[in-house]
Amino acid sequence: MLIKLWRGLSLDTITDKKISQRLPALYLLNLVINLLNELYHLHQTGILHCDIKLENVIHDFITHKNHLIDYGLSLKMNEKKEASDTLRGSRNYLPPEIRMQGHDMIHTYNTKTEMYSLGVLLSELFGYVEMYDDHPPMETFRMGQVIKNPTLDQSIYDFVGRMRSQSPNKRPSFEEAITFFTLQKMHLGPEDMQLRVGLVTADTVDNMIESNSHPNTLLGNYSFVMLVDNKKRGPNEYMLLRHYLEKNNIFILDKALTNIDITQLKATEKQWLSATAPLFNSHYHYQFYNAATNEHLFIPLEDNKPLNNKHLNRN
Questions:
Q1: 3 state SS of 54
Q2: Residues of the chain with pLDDT > 70: what percent?
C-alpha cells in the first residue's frame, strides 16, 4: 500500500499547544466542515475509518484542509452499511455500545459509531476535554470538564453533545452535521472572521535560528505569520525559515512579501483593503501587524494600485 505524506500538524498538537485559541470561529467551523466532508465521502466509498481521533487528522495551515491518516483499523461496510469485527479503535473515542460489551465480543461498527468518535474529537478541539478513568474497567470511562472556547456559540456545544449521545439513534447523520455547521457560519460576526497576521522579516527569523531563541515569544499571539523580505531569496531559503517556525508551532501564510522594507509600511484603510483583496482568502478579515512592535500595519501602495505579483514569492 502506498501512503501519502501530508504536510501539516495533527489536531492533537493543536489542542496540546492551545493553538486553536488563536483561530477565529470561522476557521474552526471550516475545519470541522472539511473533516465532516472527508469522512462522509469515505463512507460513500463503503469504508469505515474505525480510529477517528485527534492524532489521526493532519491539518494543513496553508491549504486549510484536513487529511485522515492511519487506515490500519478500517473496515469495509456490508450491504447494511455496517461492519462486524473484534474490538478496534482508541479507548477514549469508543462509543458506549462498543465499550460496554468488553474486549472479546464481535462488535458492530457503522456511521453512528464514527459520529460518536468524531464528537469526542470535536469536544477536545473546542474545549480541551480531559479524558480519564477512575478505575481500570472500561465501563467506568467518562469525560472531563469542557472548558468552552469563547468564540463558539452554545448551540455548537449542544450539537457536539448530540454527536456524543449515549444512544446511537440520537446521534445526527453526517449529512445533518454538515448542514448544521454550514448554517452556523451565517450567524458569525466580523470578530469571528478575523485572522491576526504578524509580519516578520526573514532577517529576524535568521537571527532567531542563530541565537536559538524561541519564536513564540515574538510570534505566539498571531494566527499566522507572513514573511517580509527587503530582498528576494531563493525557495530553499524560505523553506528553511518555514520549517523552523512550523517546528515551533508558528504557521506561515503561503506567500512572502519581497522587495519591501517593513519599516516603511504606510497606506490608508481603503488602499489596504484594495491591496489585500486579491491576495488572501476572502472569507476572512485579516489584521496585519508588525510583529516586532505589535503595531497595526497597512501595505504600502504605489499610485493607489493594489500590490501585484512582483511583490509575492510562494515558498
A1: helix
A2: 75
What single letter denotes the amino acid at residue 178? I
CA 148 to chain centre: 17
End-to-end Cα distance, the chain: 30
Distance CA 57, CA 70 (A): 9
Determine the Cα–Cα distance for residues 79 and 185; give it in Å rounded to an integer.
35
pLDDT for position 85 = 93
Report the predicted TM-score, pTM, of the whole model to 2 decimal places.
0.80
- Count of other CB atoms within 10 angstroms of residue 110: 18
Pick the closest to residue 292 from 263, 268, 258 (CA basis). Answer: 263
Strands 285-290 and 194-201: parallel
Taken in order 79, 85, 90, 96, the sign of the CA dihedral is positive
Rounded CA-CA distance 140/278 in Å is 54
